[in-house]
């Protein structure tokens, strides 16, 4: 006897956002302004100063805008913080972003 | 073109009652005047207010009866209890037993009433209204056609002021007299299906499955989720994972005293969606709950929110079966965790004949009653600690399964970072004190602390052993004695003398909530990341302890794994 064939419906939700192409990476971080974004958690206060120090050692002309300038991206004001980012990143001449810390 | 008809022949998952013979209830008395009626007054809350009123109401209604109050203490063991009940039956024409106030007390008291009936004397059990189906069901399971009940008009036992205000003792006295004289047995609470197998049909497989599931649900044989049909083929496949013969009786499960044959266990495992290689774990888990120190009678029917939580200790076996002990260990996403846990719940329901809302009257229930198996994350110890099974007295190469009578589930983030042992102790202690059940903690108190791998790193760094941590937690998790004791003798006299003396000298002085340090079990599980701990409080109202048993693998183990492979979740390493 032939086994019955069952046709089933795909159970995953359809993605509602458009895929984004990653921006080209700068060849050299010297002269680049790096903006920091933080959720103020998972040892951010220890991790960012370390990253800053180590990158500065490698790229002496790198510039940083510290995460405290932008506010907590995972706090009670996160909608406002995220909403203001395009304007603020443009204002500071942002060339790259470091966001963290995931934990 | 007409669709072909699909037929499913499946096993009945219900445990056959230990007693094949249903004996009729004893004949009722025509008149209580001139008769000797025994009253077994068990010590229960509000009893002191209730019994004198009940006795007065009975004597007032039937002054010509010889009412005699008997004391039957729970201490002394089953043989002494049986002898006492025989003495009461021999010296009485009828017996009244009072008072069942909850699921657990109904389960414990019912056998006394059933025994009196089996001695040939009419008996009436007084109980809170909600537990009538429980009592009748237990009677049926223990071979009595039905039990006469005198129910309070409350679903629960009311406070003393309501007992008096609503004249509860007077009203129930009338029911007691009816129960001894005019009562007649009624049909069973749930329609019993004695067939060994059942047939379901449909136009296609889905329809036949639905027909089976509907029937199983209506008869209380389902946890509400879709069931895999336990056909002969499916059950035969599951039995490949067990060397014992089908008809071998592993145990008899309370409260309905259903026979747990290997076949019935396999039927329920098949229904849960298990693979054959899960059987050794299931069989070992069954051994944990039938250990008298787990108190399955209490666990099955208590009104408390207890659920068995199982822990697999044995990295090789956990990997072979894909039992998750990493990210999302408590679920969902892993077939072994989900279906083994589910099988055990179905086994307890269907073989123990314990069904939610019928004779399992937990006010809330417990999410652990759906998914109840986690694995220990042994690599996270990095050799710093011995695994749980070794701490529980087993060899390192012997995989084990443990059961925790889990009442609560309270995860907590160890903050501020970085974690230290002091902070871990602080957070476990906070949760243990919150989750301490001052009323329930009268007999046993085995707690469980789960520690995430990242939090465990602090313990490893600081070089603290399992025993050291248990000792510090035992000393740290203390509450004022008057809260712990709550006016009662805790632990049936098992407590150290110093603790009793300390409390006597100063009722507010802190005392440990555990009887001894290793009553608090510790297991590392879950994935790395945030520094998490989770405290799991116990039930403790019965002698219900944390139990560990070895998982014994069959000779065909390797071929079994090879034959049924591929059932793994896409874990990102």
Keywords:
heterodimer, A: 103 residues, three-stranded parallel sheet, 3 helices, 3 strands, 27% helix, B: 573 residues, alpha/beta, five-stranded parallel sheet, 20 helices, 16% strand, globular
Helices and strands of chain A, in order, run as EHEHHE
Report the oligomer: heterodimer
Whole-angstrom Rg of chain B:
26 Å
Strand coverage percent of chain B: 15-25%
Distance between the termini of chain B: 52 Å
Output the strand order for the largest sheet of chain B.
3-2-4-5-6
Q: Could you describe the largest sheet of chain A, including whether it forms a barrel?
A: 3 strands, parallel
Shape estimate of chain A: elongated
Unreliable residue runs of chain A: none
List the helices and strands and how they pair.
The complex is a heterodimer of chains A (103) and B (573).
Chain A: E1 33-38, H1 44-58, E2 63-65, H2 78-83, H3 85-91, E3 96-100
Parallel strand pairs in A: 1-2, 1-3
Chain B: E1 6-11, E2 36-41, H1 47-61, E3 66-70, H2 77-90, E4 94-100, H3 103-118, E5 123-127, H4 132-141, E6 148-151, H5 160-165, H6 168-181, E7 197-202, H7 205-218, H8 232-239, E8 249-253, E9 258-261, H9 262-272, H10 279-290, H11 296-301, E10 307-313, H12 315-321, H13 335-350, E11 373-375, H14 388-391, E12 400-406, E13 410-413, H15 421-435, E14 447-451, H16 453-462, H17 466-476, E15 478-480, H18 481-485, H19 497-505, E16 510-512, E17 520-524, E18 532-536, E19 547-550, H20 557-563
Parallel strand pairs in B: 2-3, 2-4, 4-5, 5-6, 10-11, 14-17
Antiparallel strand pairs in B: 1-7, 8-9, 10-12, 12-19, 13-18, 14-18, 15-16
């Amino acid at each position: 006897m032939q086994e019955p064939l069952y046709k089933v419906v795909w159970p995953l939700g359809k993605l509602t956002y458009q895929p984004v192409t990653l921006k080209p990476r700068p060849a050299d971080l010297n002269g680049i302004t790096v903006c920091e974004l933080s959720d103020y958690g998972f040892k951010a206060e220890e991790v960012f100063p370390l990253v800053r120090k180590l990158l500065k050692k490698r790229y002496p002309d790198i510039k940083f805008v510290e995460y405290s300038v932008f506010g907590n991206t995972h706090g009670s004001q996160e909608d406002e913080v995220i909403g203001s980012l395009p304007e603020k990143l443009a204002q500071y001449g942002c060339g790259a972003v470091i966001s963290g810390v995931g934990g | 073109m007409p669709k072909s008809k699909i037929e499913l022949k499946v096993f009945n998952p219900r445990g056959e009652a230990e007693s094949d013979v249903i004996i009729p209830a004893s004949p009722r008395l025509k008149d209580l005047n001139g008769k000797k009626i025994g009253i077994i007054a068990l010590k229960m809350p509000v009893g002191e207010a209730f019994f004198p009123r009940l006795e007065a109401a009975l004597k007032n209604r039937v002054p010509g009866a010889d009412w005699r109050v008997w004391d039957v203490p729970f201490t002394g063991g089953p043989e002494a209890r049986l002898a006492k009940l025989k003495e009461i039956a021999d010296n009485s024409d009828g017996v009244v037993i009072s008072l069942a106030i909850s699921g657990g007390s109904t389960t414990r008291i019912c056998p006394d009433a059933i025994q009196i009936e089996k001695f040939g004397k009419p008996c009436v059990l007084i109980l809170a209204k909600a537990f009538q189906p429980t009592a009748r069901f237990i009677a049926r399971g223990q071979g009595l056609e039905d039990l006469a009940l005198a129910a309070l008009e409350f679903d629960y036992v009311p406070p003393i002021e309501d007992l008096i205000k609503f004249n509860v003792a007077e009203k129930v006295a009338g029911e007691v007299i009816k129960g001894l004289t005019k009562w007649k047995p009624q049909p069973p609470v749930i329609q019993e299906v004695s067939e060994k197998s059942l047939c379901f049909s449909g136009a296609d497989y889905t329809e036949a499955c639905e027909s089976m599931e509907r029937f199983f649900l209506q008869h209380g044989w389902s946890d509400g989720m879709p069931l895999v049909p336990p056909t002969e083929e499916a059950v035969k496949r599951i039995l490949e994972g067990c060397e014992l013969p089908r008809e071998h009786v592993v145990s008899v499960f309370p409260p309905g005293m259903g026979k747990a044959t290997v076949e019935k266990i396999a039927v329920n495992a098949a229904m849960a969606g298990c693979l054959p290689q899960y059987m050794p774990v299931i069989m070992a888990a069954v051994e944990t709950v039938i250990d008298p120190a787990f108190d399955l009678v209490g666990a099955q029917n208590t009104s408390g929110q207890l659920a068995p939580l199982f822990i697999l200790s044995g990295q090789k076996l956990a990997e072979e079966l894909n039992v998750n002990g990493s990210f999302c260990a408590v679920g969902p996403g892993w077939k072994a965790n989900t279906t083994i846990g589910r099988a055990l719940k179905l086994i307890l329901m269907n073989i123990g004949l314990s069904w939610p809302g019928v004779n399992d009257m937990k006010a809330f229930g417990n999410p652990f009653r759906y998914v109840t198996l986690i694995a220990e994350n042994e690599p996270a110890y990095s050799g710093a600690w011995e695994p749980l099974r070794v701490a529980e007295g087993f060899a390192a190469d012997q995989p084990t399964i443990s059961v925790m009578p889990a009442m609560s589930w309270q995860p907590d983030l160890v903050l501020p970072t970085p974690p230290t042992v002091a902070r871990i102790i602080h957070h476990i202690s906070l949760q243990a004190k919150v989750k301490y059940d001052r009323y329930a903690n009268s007999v046993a108190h085995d707690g469980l602390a789960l520690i995430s791998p990242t939090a465990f790193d602090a313990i490893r760094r600081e070089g603290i052993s399992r025993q050291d941590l248990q000792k510090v937690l035992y000393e740290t998790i203390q509450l004022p004695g008057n809260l712990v004791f709550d006016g009662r003798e805790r632990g049936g006299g098992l407590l150290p003398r110093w603790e009793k003396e300390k409390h006597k000298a100063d009722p507010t002085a802190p005392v440990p909530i555990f009887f001894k340090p290793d009553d608090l079990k510790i297991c590392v599980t879950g994935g790395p990341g945030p520094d998490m701990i989770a405290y799991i409080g116990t039930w403790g109202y019965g002698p219900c302890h944390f139990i560990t048993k070895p998982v014994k693998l069959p000779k065909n183990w390797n071929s079994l794994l090879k034959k049924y492979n591929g059932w793994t979740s896409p874990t990102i390493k």
